[in-house]
Amino acid sequence: MIWWIIKRDLLLAMRRRSDVLTTLFFFIRVVSLFPLGVGPEASLLRVMASGVLWVAALLASMLSLGRIFSSDYADGTLEQMLLSPVSLPALVTGKTISHWLVTGVPLVLMAPVLGIQYDLPMEALKVLTLSLLLGTPVLSLIGAIGAALTLGLRGGGVLISILVLPLYIPVLIFGAGAVEASTAGMGSGAHFSILGAFLLVSIVFSPWATAASLRISMG
Amino acid sequence: MTINWFKYASPASFYFLAGRMIPYFSIAAIIFLIVGLYIAFFSAPTDFQQGEAYRIIFVHVPAAWMSMFLYLVMAFWAGIGLAFTTRLSSMVASAIAPTGAMFAFLALWTGAWWGKPMWGTWWVWDARLTSELILFFLYIGFMSLQAAIDDPRRADKAGAVIALVGVVNVPIIYFSVQWWNTLHQGASVSLVQSPKMATAMLSGMLIMALAAWMYSIVTILIRTRLIILERERHTAWVSELKEGVLE
Question: What range does the domain containing B205 cover?
Fold first, then answer.
């Protein structure tokens, strides 16, 4: 069931590739704006890199959240899915995974390239990519709850950011912290453990909360 | 005699119960406020380190306590409303949110006023300040979600989900912010007070906290009554109330 949903959503995303690319390019743009704003000193950029990349990833993932459910909602598919006898949490899990595959994975792959622009050393690039790999699924999982709650509301886009951004803060702290800890020579193992814990907890809880929110939003 | 515990779960009977309770809690709030402010300004001694400026503690600490406590109460009632579909619980939850947000804002604002003379800065990225700010954001999120939804039942349930998700997150946010702060070593100032407080200071603070409690109860009851009237405006008992039949 989950596979079927993932396959379907990926196929839909591939048919409309511009959506995927818009998120990725948004990420790249935001990251490239910072050196223009604060100046090109490599020492300054190296300190900021992890924070800037993580905040940009947060924003990019958040901006694409609306897409998890909105097109299915608009053409009535979502209603049929709710009526179908399959488990709604499983269905929601599939949609969340495909959201991560479409928006999260490109960001993870792009991050090391942008990190080079910020003059990050090799070790830090690895840690950054790994932290994004662990952290971006959490963003999709938490964001799915917000997307389900704001489905079909006026001003949904701004509303979702108000709802979801405070909940993203722990992920941001430990994701960006992992890179900092590794450059400070403290090792990033603890940060990865906590990011992994966030991931596991949100895998367990988010599909249920999202399914409940969808039921509420669809009446 | 059997007591019908669910009698006041009905908005119509709670409306009148709240109406009868408001005067008592208002009087209690005023008394506690007067006593508390008297202790705060006249009876509590001047702090030998912080001088007179420390007296903002009498507003700041109760406000911070209330903002945290009210979030839990709000999530509790919202959760009850979601689980048992009791309309009144959800109404109380949405009545709590503005008061909680007000206290969170007050705690941040008075904290800035306290920080300026004490630390020489309006704001530091201290763990407690940051988590209070995030708590304020959570309140705003809850209120704006409910405001965006026209159907009140959907607004109640959606608000409940986000309040409960927030409750799960509050400890996580608090500890991550704390750890983030100790990692950064950013603020050299500490909020930790000298361990012993003068009794007058402590009692003043506790009485002000009681005043804040009473004030919250009064505003929440008033707001709940308004929400009840607004939602039940098409019912028979409200139109009877309007015509002056019911007292």
Answer: 15-186+197-237
B219 CA: distance to closest CA in chain A (Å): 25
Task: Report the gap between the CA of A163 and the closest CA in chain B (Å).
Answer: 5
The reply to whether residue A166 touches residue B134, judged by beta carbons under 8 angstroms, is yes
User: Given an 8 Å threshold on Cβ–Cβ distance, is A216 in contact with B154?
Assistant: yes
CA torsion B184-B190-B192-B197 (nearest 10°) is 180
Number of domains composing chain B: 1
Q: Is residue B2 part of a domain?
A: no
Query: Which residue in A has a C-alpha nearest to residue B145's C-alpha?
Result: A159
Could you state, in order of their start, the residue ranges of all structural domains in chain A?
2-217
pTM: 0.86
**pLDDT in single tens digits along all 247 residues of chain B:** 566 767 778 888 888 889 999 999 999 999 999 999 998 888 877 776 677 777 888 888 899 889 989 999 999 999 999 998 888 999 999 999 999 999 999 999 998 888 888 777 888 777 778 888 889 999 999 999 999 988 888 899 999 999 999 888 878 877 777 777 666 544 444 445 554 566 777 888 899 999 999 999 999 999 999 999 998 888 888 888 888 766 5
Q: Model ipTM? A: 0.84
Of the candidates B136, B178, B141, B167, the residue with the CA atom closest to the CA atom of residue B74: B167
| A154/B161 Cβ within 8 A | no
> What count of other Cβ atoms lies within 10 Å of the Cβ of residue A183?
19
